[in-house]
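User: Reviewer 2 asked us to show a designed sequence for the structure in our supplementary figure. I'm pasting the structure tokens here. Could you produce the per-position amino acids so we can include them in the response letter?
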């Protein structure tokens, strides 16, 4: 697979957020670190593995944590943002609140 550049990952994240009616995290430094992590994971594994989780190195095992992970919708509905805080609901983003740690649904 061809390597991704940061710009490719930004386009991906924007596409996802627009399609889902979400917002990207407005903290530029934090957003840049998440985009860098997603890009690194794409170039390492060939898929956008959530940058806040560890990989088993198998797309099949990691399928539930490929961005946007399958837990994003419930996390955003309940907490206003996803586990890694890349995506936020519009209301949470507009509130000016900072994302905080939330329980990891993957192992609950």
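Assistant: Here is a per-position design you can include in the supplement:
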């Amino acid at each position: 697979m061809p390597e991704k550049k940061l710009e490719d990952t930004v386009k991906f994240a924007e596409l996802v957020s627009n399609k889902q009616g979400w917002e990207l995290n407005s903290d530029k430094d934090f957003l840049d670190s998440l985009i860098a992590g997603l890009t690194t994971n794409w170039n390492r594994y060939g898929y956008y593995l959530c940058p806040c989780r560890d990989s088993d190195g198998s797309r099949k095992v990691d399928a539930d944590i490929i961005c946007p992970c399958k837990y994003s919708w419930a996390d955003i509905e309940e907490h206003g943002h996803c586990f890694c805080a890349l995506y936020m609901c519009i209301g949470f983003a507009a509130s000016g609140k900072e994302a905080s740690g939330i329980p990891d649904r993957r192992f609950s």
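For the response letter, you might also mention the following. The longest helix spans residues 28-45. The CA atoms of residues 56 and 62 lie 7 Å apart.
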